[in-house]
Amino acid sequence: MSSYLRQKYQAGKYILQKEGLLPLVAEVIRLLRKCVFVHERYFMYEMPLNEPMKFEAAPKIQNFVFEIVPTNQHLDELVAQGFDFGIHGIRAREKLDKGALMFCIFVEKELACIHWAAATQEAMNVLIKVSYKVDFSSNEVCLGWSETNPKYRRLLLSRYNYSEEGKFLVRMGKTIGRTLVEKRNLASLKGLPKAGGRVYGEGRYLKILWWKSWKEKPVVSEASQPQSV
Fold it and tell me: Does some domain include residue 175?
């Protein structure tokens, strides 16, 4: 069994055990739909990592733990200490094997917020389905997807996570982060400019069965900027 299929099997088993049959069926349907047809539109953001954050990043909660997870060995060590990654602990393994970086915040050892980054093309390929342009040779880095547990939203955990992630990447010598935001993701469209993000392009991802297409173009006017910010 390939690592991809093994991961999907383990993830399905976890969902069945923890959440039940209906959530598993919903996840299978979601995956099948993505295998057949996907059409998504994005804004492309450039993030200056070595500039001060434009917002206050202190979370509205005291008892939290921030962890940088660069390897599966470190993941296993945290799990042995009782940190609960949930289904992300299964999905993270292939990404960590390829060099992706995971930035986590825990509340009472429960995963509350997760961010991903990739400093190499190999790591980006397993982290992001869209191969947008990142110049890794010029100290650029791919800022991957992020997620906050619904229980801990509106506590500024994602802002703090991004702030600490940026400091770590600067210590690695990285100066520019590049990321994609779906045009329907209003929360991120509002938040990234506050972190210093600048829209520099637009992209369209189209997938029909095994055929894939990614097209990107520069933003050349104020009218092309996201209106939700």
Answer: yes
Residue with tokens 């703090």: 160
Is the model's pLDDT at 145 over the cut of 90?
no
3-state secondary structure 50-111: CCCCCCCCCCCCCCEEEEEECCHHHHHHHHHCCCECCCHHHHHHHHHHCCCEEEEEEECCEE
Q: Is the pLDDT of residue 75 over 70?
A: yes
Tell me the H-state helices in 113-173: 121-127, 157-171
Domains of the chain: total: 1
Within-domain flag for 229: no
What is the domain-level CATH number for residue 79?
Answer: 3.40.630.30
Structure tokens at 1: 């069994």
Mean pLDDT of 184-205: 85
Which of 198, 226, 176, 223 is CA-nearest to residue 41?
Answer: 226
85, 91 in Cβ contact below 8 A?
A: no
- The parent domain of residue 136 ranges over 3-224
Q: Which of 50 and 118 is assigned the larger pLDDT?
A: 118
Q: Would you say residue 229 has pLDDT above 80? A: no
3-state class (DSSP) for residue 11: helix
Cβ partners under 8 Å of residue 110, min gap 6: 84, 86, 149
pLDDT of residue 55 exceeding 70: no
pTM of the model: 0.84
